[in-house]
Design brief:
five-stranded parallel β-sheet, alpha/beta, 427 residues, FAD/NAD(P)-binding domain, 31% helix, 24% strand
Length: 427
């Protein structure tokens, strides 16, 4: 007699969704459909290296269908979630419908502009692979334009960069831009030599950089960025960005065409989920087993989940990859057991780290262990290489990094746009 199949639909092919799918592979009695708006998985912590031309997109991404080739009980559906109909156990996608026995939302987060329409319209986001490629095109095109402009103020606006948000992404971008200014731009753009190469600003409303990390990491990062020539403005927020002027909350302003937005994220909201199930940042409130409050068979994991049952994280877990992966693994184990044997999710914090520049990084390990400098930089490289999904990505990324390290240069500074078009109406 054939065992009845339980169909699990997983929305989102990022860290959380893919990890859950892998946990369910080849499990009797379970079929799963992984749904994503893209046909690839990518590694968000290295997006900034694609945006700055140090890595090619394929080094940090991998086709989902190829990844699922040998997982007979896991299928893939390209589509965007539009609506959930809990009463019918059905999801409405951009290209059809799917029935489910269990629905898991692993939809991640999107850029949050905090209601500032001018910032949303004019800033450069840094959340998706498409964002990273668009940023690369925009910044390279503006450098080219700067070589032709004769007006000094206009040239400065083209090559001055403001990064909003002093978390890991903002810090890493600022450090990368500073090193590019020193080692690459001076050589590749001789027309700009002696006429000023613009400035790099890092802006944050907090009193420190890398607010979630230790005081030692914050101090080392601040001092390292200052030595690289980054102007750091803390305790101020971006209030507006229009007419090539970034307006700050302290009344000051910066003239630039380039505001890179790394200042916040919010989860995606979907029709069909009760309003009372949404918490801070539109994240879905769940119980200790990741079941969405007010639902019977809908679960949320990763950045879209706000779980307050973990005693060490009463305000919810940080929106980082390790949380997403561990939640997916715990939920996958629970799905394979009887409900009475389910285990609540408890996050095992393995620490956090950020790279600042060449030979400079910081790392905080639980139990108050901190290290920085060259050793932390090596650890950052190792952890990020090993976190990529397969050996091909790891070898390609390592090869690119070794070449960039010894040459102080990178090879992917190409402006590539479909039909010559790009976002932000570049001249």
């Amino acid at each position: 007699m054939n065992q009845p199949q339980k169909h699990i639909v997983v929305i989102g092919g990022g860290f959380a969704g893919l990890s859950l799918a892998m946990k369910l592979q080849k499990q009797p009695g379970i079929t799963a459909t992984l749904v994503d708006i893209n046909n690839y998985n990518f590694f968000p912590p290295l997006l900034y290296q694609v945006a700055t031309g140090f890595l090619e997109p394929s080094a940090i991404s991998y086709p989902l269908r190829r990844f699922l080739r040998t997982r007979d009980n896991i299928s893939f559906r390209l589509g965007e979630l539009k609506k959930i109909i809990p009463g019918e156990n059905k999801v409405v996608l951009s290209n059809g419908e799917l029935d489910y026995d269990i629905l898991v939302l692993a939809t991640g987060a999107e850029t949050n502009y905090f209601g500032m329409e001018n910032v949303k319209r004019n800033a450069i986001p840094m959340k998706t692979l498409s964002d990273a490629l668009a940023m690369r095109n925009i910044l390279l095109q503006r450098l080219e334009e700067a070589t032709r402009v004769t007006d000094i103020e206009e040239r400065r606006k083209l090559i001055t960069i403001v990064v909003a948000g002093a978390g890991p992404t903002g810090v890493e971008l600022s450090g990368m831009f500073a090193e590019m200014k020193k080692n690459i731009i001076r050589k590749d753009y001789p027309e700009l030599t002696g006429q000023g190469l613009g400035e790099i600003y890092l802006i944050d409303g907090a009193p420190v950089v890398l607010a979630p990390m230790s005081e030692k990491s914050q101090k080392y990062t601040y001092e390292s960025l200052k030595k690289l020539g980054v102007h750091i403005k803390l305790n101020v927020n971006v209030k507006d960005f229009s007419d090539d002027v970034v307006l700050l909350s302290d009344g000051s302003s910066i003239k630039t065409k380039n505001l890179i937005w790394a200042a916040g994220v919010a989860a995606k909201a979907f029709e069909g989920i009760p309003q009372e199930s949404f918490g801070r940042g539109r994240r879905l409130l769940t119980d200790a087993f990741n079941k969405v409050n007010g639902t019977e068979n809908i679960y949320a994991i990763g950045d879209t989940c706000l779980q307050t049952s973990d005693p060490v994280f009463p305000n919810g877990h940080p929106q980082v990859a390790q949380v997403a992966i561990q939640q997916a693994q715990n939920l996958g184990k629970n799905f394979l057991n009887q409900p009475a044997a389910w285990q609540p999710f408890i996050y095992n914090d393995k620490g956090s780290m950020a790279i600042i520049g060449r030979n400079k990084a910081v790392a905080d390990i639980p139990k108050k262990t901190h290290f920085d400098g060259f050793f932390a930089w090596l650890v950052w490289l190792f952890v990020h290489v090993m976190s990529l999904v397969n050996y091909r990505n790891r070898l390609r990324t390592l090869y690119n990094w070794v070449g960039a390290y010894f040459s102080k240069d990178q090879a992917f500074r190409m402006i590539i746009r479909p039909d010559g078009k790009d976002d932000k109406s570049i001249k």
